[in-house]
Amino acid sequence: MTQSFTLAYCPWINGSVERLNRDILQVLRVILLEYKVEQDNWAALLPLIQANLNHSPVASLANHAPAEVFLGVKAKTPLQKILIGSDAIAANVVTTGDFSPGVREAVCNLRASLDGMHREVVTAKEKQTKRNQSNQRGARSVNFHVGDYVLWSRVDAKKQGNKLSVTWVGPYRVIGANANSFEIKHLITATTKFAHASRLKMYADQSLDVNEEMLAHIANQDIYLTVEAFTQHRKHATHTYEILVRWEGLEAIEDSWEPVTTMYDDVPIKLQDYVDSAADDELRQFVIQLRSHSQGRKRTESTVQPTPSHRRGKRGGDVAAQPKPPKLNRRQRRAKGNTKK
C-alpha cells in the first residue's frame, strides 16, 4: 500500500485532487465566457458549482442528489443567481437563468470526472481487501501431485540451536497422498515421512532432471537425523554411559555411540523404553539420577528470575555477579595504604 502525504494548502501534490481541480477549472472557463463575468471574480462562481454538485442526481446514489441523501430533504434547484463582490446589492447580482448546453456539458463532464475518481478509490480499496484476505492464514489449494517435487518446511523441527539453517529444504519427491497429508521421499537417504500440505511448497513437476549438482546441493543442507532405535549400551571411562544409536534412513555400519545424557535430553521416552527392556539396574539408576537432576534444574529455573546482574556459573547454577574492584594506580595504592595506617 502506498502512503502519500498532502501538505496544507498544497492540493497539487494529491493527484486525485489535481485531476478534479482541472475539471472545475474547465467549468469556470465555460461559465465566465457564457455569462461575461470578469476573470477576477471567478471565486463568486464557486458556490454555483458546489451547489450543482451537491444538488444534482447521481447514478451511484440511485439517482438521488448528495444533499438529499445527506440531509434527507428534497434537493432544490441549483442557484440561479451569482453575487459579484462582497456587497449584497442589486447591482452586483447577476441572474443566470437556465443553463446553456455548454454549461450543462461542462458540469456533466465534471460530474463524470468526480465519479471516475470515486470508482478508482473503491477499486483500490477492493484490491487491497482481496490482498489482505489472500495473505491471511487459512486453507490453501494444493498445486502439486504425486510424482512432483516439493520443498519441505522444517519449521517445527529441532535445529540444534543453529540459526543459520534454512527453513525450506529439499527437494523431496511426493510418493503418496492421504486425506490430510502427503508422503515425501528424500532423494539421498531415501527416507520417507508424512507432512501436512501447509508444510510443503511446489518446486517442480515430475519431469525434473535430478542431476549430481542438485544432489550435492541437497547433501549440503543440514540433515536432522532421527533415532530409529537403541541397540546396546556400555559404561564409559568417565563413569557415565554411552548408547549405540541406530539412525533412521542410514545403514547399520553408520550407527554411532552417543552419551546417554544427550539422548535423555533429545528422546527421553524412547530412551526410557530401552532402559526398561535392558534389565540393567546400574543403567536404570543412572537414568533416574538424570531425571531427578533435570527436574531440580527446571524448578530452579522457574523460581529464579534471570536478571542482568546474574551470570551463569561453571556448573549451571545462577551465581550473582560480584562487581570487580576498580584498578588503582601506584599513587592511589600508596594513598590507600597511608589511610589504613
Protein model, in words:
The protein starts with 14 loop residues before the first helix and ends with a helix. A hairpin with a 5-residue loop joins strand 8 (227-235) and strand 9. Residues 304-326 and 334-341 have low confidence and may be disordered. A five-stranded antiparallel beta sheet has the order 6-5-4-3-7, with no helix packed on it. It has a three-stranded antiparallel beta sheet with strand order 8-9-10. Helix 1 runs antiparallel to helix 4 and helix 6 (260-266) crosses helix 7 (268-278). The radius of gyration is 41 Å and the shape is elongated. The protein has helices at 15-34, 46-55, 66-71, 101-135, 212-219, 260-266, 268-278, 281-303, 330-340, and strands at residues 81-83, 93-95, 149-153, 168-177, 181-186, 192-196, 200-204, 227-235, 241-247, 256-259, 310-312, 318-320. By secondary structure, it is of the alpha+beta class. Helix content is 38%, strand content 18%. The chain has three domains: 12-134, no CATH class; 149-219, SH3 type barrels; 227-320, OB fold (Dihydrolipoamide Acetyltransferase, E2P) (Beta Barrel). The chain has nine helices and twelve strands.
